[in-house]
Amino acid sequence: MHREVPIAEVLDNVHPEDRPGLDAAIIEAVARRGGYAHQYRVKRADGLYYWLQATGRVESNEHGEPVSFPGFVIDITERRAGQERLRISEELTRQSVERVQLALAAGAIVGTWNWDLRTDCFTVDQAFANAFGLDPALGRDGLPLAKIVETVHPDDRVGLIAAIDASIAHGGIYTHQYRVKRTDGKYYWLEASGRVDYALDGTPLTFPGVLIDIEGRLEVEAQRDRALHELRSLNETLEQRIAKRSEELMVAEERMRQSQKMEAIGQLTGGVAHDFNNLLTVIKSSTDLLKVPDLPVERRARYVKAISDTVERASKVTSQLLAFARRQTLTPEVFAACDSVRSLAGMLDTLVGSQIAIDIDLPDRAHYVKADLNQFDTALVNMAVNARDAMQKQGRLSIRVYATKQLPAVRNHPAIAGDYVAVSLSDTGSGISSEQLEQIFEPFFTTKGVGHGTGLGLSQVFGFAKQSGGEITVISEVDAGSIFTLYLPEVPKPPEKPKEDEPQPLMNGHGTGVLVVEDNLDVGNFAVQTLTDLGYRPVLAHNAQEALAELSQDSTRFDVVFTDVVMPGMSGIELGHEIRRLYHDLPVLLASGYSHVLAQNGTYGFELLHKPYSVEELSRLLRKVGIWQHRQRIFHKK
Q1: Which residues pair with 193 in a beta bridge?
Q2: Ranges for the PAC domain (predicted)?
Q3: Could you tell me the fold of the domain covering 7-75?
């Protein structure tokens, strides 16, 4: 059972450490109108947190505006717990290896320890605990240094503490000899050997080591042999255990991914089937009612209109599927950069948060550019997110649009004169070091922690600028903020779009010859019958080879070739190129519901009729591409 819950209520229960990454993932999905997958923790009613994986996609309306964000969540708490247990196991194995290696280098072993300097927590093995007269259970759970020092001879304690402090301060191998009270109350000599491990910033982290019995020198070689055997056995089995655990984890994750994939596909196909069944119900009912004898003209027209409207809705469903699969052709368009920045202002306010002030400076002129509008919006969002993170969610973001007469010299390229539109975003953030400035546009480069950035945002801006004939520059100093400027070629204002004409009546073909190329028999026969009823002279070819054979017999019979794009063997596009080569005056009209070739490379200059198409659209485009050729033929016959 579903219920509506305000998004603020959902986000309030997200773990504070996971909130920034979740916000960024949602914003990125909305900006690129695409899919979304993210892992985060949510508080339960009992106050404990559990892990979720959310998967969804952004749905847009016909204007490209996001309208909904459907998705689903999966509880992955057990999987995360398993991963953590594996990590702990591998860490314990690593510590054991270090202890044995130290023991091998030092000689005879009495016991081993690992001291966590951040928490002052000593964990020791049973031999160590016995040597110091400690409870083995406390040694496993961890105890402070002071508890260890209590069993050291009073005369040796000052020297021991000084040696430990010196080793932590200066690093290197730690070696020190002192006396420890036996369980029988007597003292005996030990030698402690270890080293301090540091973080990258120099912070001391851990202090592992071993104890050596220096009163029993005669047993040193025997104990060394045992240590060597233990190390050899550990080395022989360690890789096998780690490989096996890694393989088990990979298999489990793959099963989880496959399960999520099948669930997503099931939800998607179920929703599409539901939509199409509704549409088919309208079409089937209307066709049944059209069979009623003596049906009034008004009702007949109403049923025909219902069928036509339903087909339009079905076409929109397939368009949404192609958009979800990123299979639609992305083509540049002319738009006003200022208008786009202005329309994004509200979303950017939400994106950067209330603690960051936004100043937008737009000129009086609109400043038109030719680029992919969605990619332009995504580039601005990516730069704004980058600025927000640099300011740690507090500061000022300034956005300015202005005209410039040249592309600046950058990345070993000289300045280029011309009319360009510049969109700059400046922030008051932490700035970027000179070393990182050379890398920030590289894919996957990021200075953020794991889960807080993909390293793809600025690389998208860079790629978009280059593909659009522009450039991206950055000026930055550490603690002095950054200025990112996107340059795009300026183009003239496009002419006003004429108002859409009312649907024109079906045009008579007047004997225009049409070679129909369609591998689907039902579609091909219907197209031939339709064109015949409209006054055309159609001839059907079932594939490109048949079409070329018809043309080779007498190409003058045809004024236009109407071909499907996706066919076995030679495609419609390849056929069109061959017709251009052999019969350069013969126009070609393509028909396609979807083609990956068209999505990637466009129509190669051919006219394109999108499936499903109406008879009026078919008649109009055939007349557009074939009327000149038909008139030329008539003129030459005269």
Answers
A1: 175, 210
A2: 36-88, 174-226
A3: Beta-Lactamase (3.30.450)
Residue with tokens 């928490």: 119
Residue 452's pLDDT is 42
- All residues at 6 or more sequence positions from 114 whose CB lies less than 8 Å from its CB, including other chains: 95, 99, 122, 123, 124, 206, 207, 208, 209
Could you report the per-residue pLDDT of 254-299, keeping only the tens digit for each?
A: 676 566 556 545 545 665 676 677 678 878 888 888 888 888 888 8
Q: Are 116 and 100 in contact (CB under 8 A)?
A: no
Residues in the chain: 638
| Max CA separation in the chain (angstroms) | 129
Residue-wise pLDDT for 109-160, tens only, equals 778 888 898 999 988 888 778 777 778 787 788 889 888 888 899 999 999 9
Structure tokens at 549: 């054979």
The full 3-state SS of 499-544, as one line of letters, equals: CCCCCCCCCCCCCCEEEEECCCHHHHHHHHHHHHHCCCEEEEECCH
Residue 515: closest CA among 582, 586, 568, 580: 586
| Contact assessment for residue 140 and residue 154, using Cβ atoms and an 8 Å cutoff | no
Nearest to 338 by CA among 381, 383, 369: 369
Going by CATH, does the domain composed of 333-491 fall within 3.40.50.620? Answer: no
CA 476 – CA 440 distance, rounded (Å): 12
Q: Are 572 and 564 in contact (CB under 8 A)?
A: yes
> What CA–CA distance (Å, rounded) separates 350 from 381?
11
* Cα gap 248→262, rounded to integer Å: 21
Question: What pLDDT, in 10s, does the model give residues 488-530?
Answer: 999 998 887 655 444 555 567 788 899 999 998 888 888 899 8
Rg, Å, the chain Cα set: 37
Q: Which residues contact 85 (CB under 8 A, 6 or more apart)?
A: none
Report whether 582 contacts 561 (CB < 8 A). Answer: no
CA distance 499 to 569: 42
Q: Is the pTM of this model over 0.70?
A: no
The number of CA neighbours under 13 Å toward the Cβ of 379 is 31
d(CA 88, CA 85): 5
Contact in structure between 465 and 472 (CB atoms under 8 Å): yes
Class of domain 513-637: alpha beta
Q: Which pair of tokens denotes residue 166?
A: 């010196």
Per-position DSSP letters for 434-500, written without gaps between them: HHHHTTTTSTT--SSPTTS--S-HHHHHHHHHHHTT-EEEEEE-TTS-EEEEEEEEEEPPPPPPPPP
Same fold, 7-75 and 333-491: no
What gap in Å lies between CA 475 and CA 448, rounded to an integer? 20
Structure tokens of 16?
């504070």
**Which residue, among 124, 128, 126, has the nearest Cα to 95 in the 3D structure?**
124
Phi, psi (5° rounding) for residue 535?
95, 10
Which residue ranges make up each domain of the chain?
7-75, 333-491, 513-637
